[in-house]
Amino acid sequence: MEESRLLRLPAVLKLTGLKKSTVYAGAKNGTFPKPVRLSARAVAWRSDELARWIDELPRATS
């Protein structure tokens, strides 16, 4: 099992292809993993939670 890392917003946007507003809205309404507070002005997301979220996305069918 891969060790979990903390990813800052630019890495999360690149990994998911989502926009900043979509990430924060999803975290607020529970459809996207919530960030971890690093300091008063910094947050990050756990890579294992993001990987699980990606794996649970429905696959496109033809």
Spatial shape? globular
The assembly state of the depicted protein chains is single chain
Extract low-pLDDT stretches. Answer: none
Using the CA coordinates, give the radius of gyration.
Answer: 12 Å
Nearest-integer average pLDDT: 95
Helical fraction equals 40-55%
The SSE order reads: EHHEEH
Alpha-carbon distance between the termini? Answer: 32 Å
Number of domains: 1
The largest beta-sheet arranges its strands as 1-3-2
Tally of DSSP helical segments: 3
Number of strands: 3
Beta-strand percentage? 15-25%
Characterize the main sheet: 3 strands, antiparallel
Structural class: alpha+beta
What features would you describe in this structure?
The chain has 62 residues and is an alpha+beta fold. It has one domain (6-55). It is 44% helix and 18% strand. The chain contains three helices and three strands; from the N terminus they run E-H-H-E-E-H. The protein has a three-stranded antiparallel beta sheet. The longest helix has 10 residues, at 20-29. It starts with 5 loop residues before the first strand and ends in a 7-residue tail after the last helix.
Features:
62 residues; 3-stranded antiparallel β-sheet
What is this structure, in a nutshell?
The protein is α+β, with helices and mostly antiparallel strands and 62 residues long. The protein has one domain (6-55). The protein is built from three helices and three strands.
Helix and strand topology:
Blueprint (H helix, E strand, L loop, with lengths): L5 E2 L1 H8 L3 H10 L6 E4 L2 E5 H9 L7
Antiparallel strand pairs: 1-3, 2-3
